[in-house]
C-alpha cells in the first residue's frame, strides 16, 4: 500500500462523507450496519466503490479510504454488496445480514404497491 502526501483520516466515519448519513434534528436515529475495512488487504480493485459509491470512498491511490464506517439503514444493502464484490475480502460488515436488508427493500416495495392501488 502506498502512502500519499494528502493523508485522509482513516478513523471512524459516516457513509458518503455525511451527505447521506447525517442525522437531521428531530430525525429518528437509523440502525444500519457498521463496516470495518482492512486497508492492508486492499489491492485497489475499486469494486466496493463501483458497486456502492455512496458507501465506500477511495483514496488518491484507489484504495479504500476508511477503517470504520457507520452506515445508515438506507445504505446497508449497498454496504453488503460493496463488501461482497471485494476479491481480497478487505471489508467486513457488522450487523444484520444482507438477506435482512434485501427482505426489507422487497417488503417496502410491496407496501408501496399496495398504497398505490
Question: Key terms for this structure?
Answer:
single chain, 117 residues, Alpha-Beta Plaits, four-stranded mixed beta sheet
What would you say this structure looks like, in words?
The structure is a single chain. By secondary structure, the chain is α+β, with helices and mostly antiparallel strands. It has one domain (12-17, 29-116): Alpha-Beta Plaits (2-Layer Sandwich), CATH 3.30.70.20. It is 28% helix and 14% strand. The protein has three helices and four strands. It has helices at residues 47-51, 76-84, 98-116; strands at 12-14, 33-37, 68-71, 91-94. The protein has a four-stranded mixed beta sheet, covered by helices on one side. Mean pLDDT is 78; it is low at 1-12 and 16-29.
Q: What does the secondary structure layout of this molecule look like, with pairings?
A:
Elements: E1 12-14, E2 33-37, H1 47-51, E3 68-71, H2 76-84, E4 91-94, H3 98-116
Parallel strand pairs: 1-3
Antiparallel strand pairs: 2-3, 2-4
